[in-house]
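Worked example 2:
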Amino acid sequence: MALTLAQLITRIEDNAGRTDQSDAHVVDWLNDCLHVLARRHNWRDLHKPDYSATMTIGTFRYNFPLNMKTCHGIRLIDGSASKWLIEKTRRWLNQYEPYPASSSNARPTFYCVDGNTFDLYPPPDSAYTYYLNYTRWPTNFIIRPTAKTTGTTATASISGNTLTDTAGHFLGYGVIADDIVNF
């Protein structure tokens, strides 16, 4: 069952028995609920196994995608062969190779997650392609205000996206029912 954002807001207002909140407030609340649910579990709908990029020779630090929540692994492509890199802790890398930028280049074997970046060891000796297997954060609902007014009260038009992706699945389970009381 696919719902538009406007239909979802109407359902929430009906279930809560309240219509005194602005659509923007309800959308903010929905986005907060999506992120609370995403923190609790790595939902299958948020899994993204196909992000790829190319390494730069001698560069050991790379940025994760901005929407990444959890890294599940990095696969290095070397011609027709591939291998999964081994995740190590920051402590291990600091003990094993305190200055990775000064180490000699070779085919990377290890990676270390450090916030929104990851370090490779050893730094790549070629422009390898890598695939990042990760879970992303859910996409926020967006409400787009318009200049249209009714009397003295401004109204908002809601983007007509149909909720067929992650957000629709999350909300369809009714997991947020206990949070609606605080609405």
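The first strand starts at residue 3 and ends at 4. Helices lie at 5-16, 23-40, 90-96, 166-172.
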